């Protein structure tokens, strides 16, 4: 059955239709995927679809990253360190998509437009309920546990891998591969933290509440905007700094302080 996304468009050449019986649409389940988009007749604003597309593409990216973390867990269980590194590289590339979606909204969605749309959204429709972000936190904990098991099986610690990250390392190949997995894990976490912090910046842009945007000592805490669920955005500030793999960031601090001690 053919479906028209913008049936009210008077020029038929500008109508977007889908729902054909081609092998392409069938293989990708494209009809089901596109049917989730808000039709013209239900748009809260002309930019509503842009807002939805950015969020849906982000959720699809979380699915792809989650799938990669499942593959990573399987690769580490088999001690296939080459596949583990390649899978993490894929996950890191996928994590660029949510960051790009944020840039799209930052550059193309005026505050006045967002606030107009927000007034028509369903009560409680908060991004804190994202199934992708929630699943990513749980998957991150699982793969970190698997990575620690792999380190134990190889008889090494995170500190042991530091030298193996340097160019020209000529030690054990397995240690170099484990070091690559460690680096890839932190690069993935860096990309996801970039999304979290960019999301917080977007919220400040659209809702206000930047903690350093006022000289009044009590204004920052008194005038905090809230989510659609009524929660203050201080929750978002807390989550924006929370990494998937905190021990990697602890290791960064340890290595830095050790280097500073060596230089002094």
Could you characterize the architecture of this molecule?
The protein is mostly helical. Helices cover 64% and strands 2% of the residues. Strands 1-2 form a two-stranded antiparallel ribbon. Helix 3 runs antiparallel to helix 5, helix 3 packs parallel to helix 7 and helix 9 packs antiparallel against helix 11. The longest helix has 35 residues. The chain is globular, with a radius of gyration of 23 Å. The mean pLDDT is 91.
For the largest sheet, list the strands in their spatial order.
Answer: 1-2
Please count the helical segments.
12
- Counting DSSP E segments of at least 2 residues, the number of strands comes to 2
Question: What percent of the residues sit in helical stretches (DSSP H or I)?
Answer: 55-70%
Order of helices and strands: EEHHHHHHHHHHHH
% residues in beta strands:
under 5%
- Overall 3D form: globular
Poorly predicted regions:
none
Report the span from N to C terminus.
73 Å
| Main sheet specs | 2 strands, antiparallel
Give the structural class: mainly alpha
pLDDT average, as an integer?
91
Radius of gyration: 23 Å
Which helices and strands occur, and which strands form pairs?
Blueprint: E1 3-4, E2 17-18, H1 23-28, H2 30-35, H3 48-77, H4 81-94, H5 96-108, H6 111-118, H7 131-154, H8 158-161, H9 173-207, H10 219-222, H11 234-240, H12 246-263
Antiparallel strand pairs: 1-2
In short:
This protein has 264 residues and is an all-alpha fold. It contains 12 helices and 2 strands, in the order E-E-H-H-H-H-H-H-H-H-H-H-H-H. Strands 1-2 form a two-stranded antiparallel sheet.
